[in-house]
C-alpha cells in the first residue's frame, strides 16, 4: 500500500519509494548469497552438490565456491564424507535453542506432558540435542507414589539411551555423523559399534518410535517418540521411562502408555503447526 507523508515544508514523500531506496541503499550481496544457500539447503534432506546449488540459485560457480567454503569454515554447512555434497550443520539448530522459541516449545509441551502423566500414571521428559549429547528441558512426574524421573537440566547420553537413538534416527546422514563426531561419553555409557547403531536407527525409523529396556536402570522400559520439524528431522524427543506395577493395583499397561505417548506427540506436533 502506498502511503504519503507531508513534511513541515509541504513536501510529499511516498513511503513506498523510500522503502525501495532503503532496500537498494543497504544491500549486502554477500550476505544475501549466504542466506540463499542456507535457505536452499534447509529444504534438502540429503544435501546438494555445488553444481546443483549453483544451478538452483542461478549464480556463477566461483562465487558459490567461495561462499560454501566460508559457510563450511564457520560450521554452518558440512560436507558429506565423500566431499561432494553439502548440507546444513547443526549450528543453526543449536543457536535456535538459545532463542525464545525453545521456551515456546516447553510451554506448549508441558500441559500435554502433564495430561499424559496423569492418564498413563507414568513420568515423561522432553529432550533436545545439545553439544554432543541430550539436554532435558522439561520433565513431569506421574501422579502415583512410585515413579521414575530424570532430573530437569540433566545431560543424557546420545548413544545408549532411547532418547538418543531416536534423536539420531530421525536426522540426515550428515547431521547424524556430525552429532556422533561431537559426542562425548557420559558417566556409565554403554558403547556400541557404529554399524550396529546404524541398524538400530534404521529399525527405529521404520517403526516410528523406540521401545527398549533401559540400559541404565533395571526394570525400566524406555518408550520414545520424535517430535519432527518441517523437514522430517527430530527437533526434540519425548520419553516415558515406563515402570510396571507388580502389586494388585491395575495401572495402565505398557501398550496403553505407548499409545498415549504417541497421541501426546501428535497433539504437540499439531499445536506447533497451528502456531506456525
TrEMBL record:
UniProt entry keywords in alphabetical sequence: DNA-binding, Transcription, Transcription regulation
Ranges for domain HTH iclR-type: 28-90
SUPFAM superfamilies per the UniProt record, alphabetical: GAF domain-like (SSF55781), Winged helix' DNA-binding domain (SSF46785)
GO biological process: negative regulation of DNA-templated transcription
Domain of life: Bacteria
Keyword hit for DNA-binding: yes
InterPro entries: GAF-like_dom_sf, HTH_MetabolicPath_Reg, Tscrpt_reg_IclR_C, Tscrpt_reg_IclR_N, WH-like_DNA-bd_sf, WH_DNA-bd_sf
Chain segments carrying region Disordered: 1-23
Polar residues compositional bias, start-end: 1-14
A single GO molecular function term of this UniProt record: DNA binding
Domain IclR-ED: 91-274
PANTHER family associated with the record: HELIX-TURN-HELIX TRANSCRIPTIONAL REGULATOR, ICLR FAMILY, HTH-TYPE TRANSCRIPTIONAL REGULATOR KDGR-RELATED
Protein name per the record: Transcriptional regulator, IclR family
Species in which this protein is naturally found: Paraburkholderia ribeironis
